[in-house]
Fold each of these.
Amino acid sequence: MQDIGIFYGSSTGNTESVAKKIQEEFGADIASIIDVADASVADLEKFDNLILGTSTWGIGDLQDDFEGFLSEISNANMDGKKVALFGLGDQYSYSDSFVDGMGELFKVLEEKNCELIGETSTDGYEYDASGAEKDDKFVGLAIDIDNQDDQTEERVADWVAELKNQFN
Ligand SMILES: Cc1cc2nc3c(=O)[nH]c(=O)nc-3n(C[C@H](O)[C@H](O)[C@H](O)COP(=O)(O)O)c2cc1C
């Protein structure tokens, strides 16, 4: 497997902590974590395998730093890259916009010439609506540290095991 770049945007540290767990599952020798607040087009283009993670703020908005990073994604050459998404949210307090930020990222990446991988089942979550659903699945990994942190380890481990079979 080629190197993996894990890019995250995090306001209170939750998405950052999940990025670190994902890195641990792959191994720090192969996976690097990068805060999008400090990242550029060149950082993105270094990796053929990308994982992008954002939390959701406001009502269904991308995390602030990730909002600022969208122009870098738009300008990056993503041809042939495999990209997996993860999103942090709170399914009980924001039941109509659960992990919508991940859905916003998906919309931007759908326009790029990359392959999106890592969709997951919505089973085990309780919410009314999510902009990160497509064909009854999440477009990436949904993590809810606020309400279901006891499931975070297992969700991350299962997802990374799937990605190991799919990355370049
Ligand atoms: C003011 C506020 C607005 C939020 N809006 C949403 C939302 O619309 N949808 C959602 O799923 N989670 C929402 N959340 C929950 C956060 O996404 C969640 O707590 C996340 O773990 C924060 O991750 P971070 O520390 O990496 O930014 C909101 C939280 C706050 C405090």
Note: The pocket of flavin mononucleotide is lined by residues 10-15, 55-60, 63, 88-90, 94, 97-100, 145-146 (CB under 6 Å).
Amino acid sequence: MTAPTSTPLRVAVLVGSTREGRFAPVVVKWLTGHLGQRDDLRADIVDLAETPLPTVLPAFGQEPPPGTAEALATVSPRLAAADAFVFVTPEYNHSFPAALKNAIDWHNTEWHGKPVAFVSYGGLSGGLRAVEQLRVVMAELNATTIRNTVSFHNAWGAFDESARVDDPAVDTAAKAMIDQLTWWAHALRDAKSVRPYAA
Ligand SMILES: Cc1cc2nc3c(=O)[nH]c(=O)nc-3n(C[C@H](O)[C@H](O)[C@H](O)COP(=O)(O)O)c2cc1C
């Protein structure tokens, strides 16, 4: 059984860039500002740079190498506990970062029957190609992707030094995305409380 509707939703924010000197923290700071305004949500920032996972997956049915369990313990329980996800992703060569795919691939049931929203950033395309590819990947993992996204085009010019964005349209987009994520997270959590997900 899962939590009743009144319990705040647990939203795991996956930070997809692990690159040295990455821009990601600015976007994450902006996003956590939005999530923090909501009484009905509790955000958990899963920063893949701080919780590196092994990059070699075990053969099917085989035990992973020593040390794997310790690395996974910093991420997997937090994904399992989440009611919803926001992936913060840049665009690398018209796709999403390898570290994000690796974190996705290490898990399976943790994604099942849960909604995923996307905040993307990059050059002219604002990371939208990364997002569209992530939708295909997450469908395979029995997750529901949220229609509305927030994308930062030429992101490095979009924020001030406090990670604020001086564009009301961006705030409107963020609210719409978070509202949709919340709706799906409640709907799916409520549904799973009466009927286990049919993976
Ligand atoms: C390997 C690599 C490939 C990139 N490819 C693209 C791209 O295809 N489209 C784009 O808009 N930006 C691209 N960029 C620019 C990134 O979107 C930009 O550097 C962004 O700041 C990366 O996020 P990060 O700093 O948090 O890692 C690329 C950057 C890197 C490092």
Note: The chain has six helices and six strands.
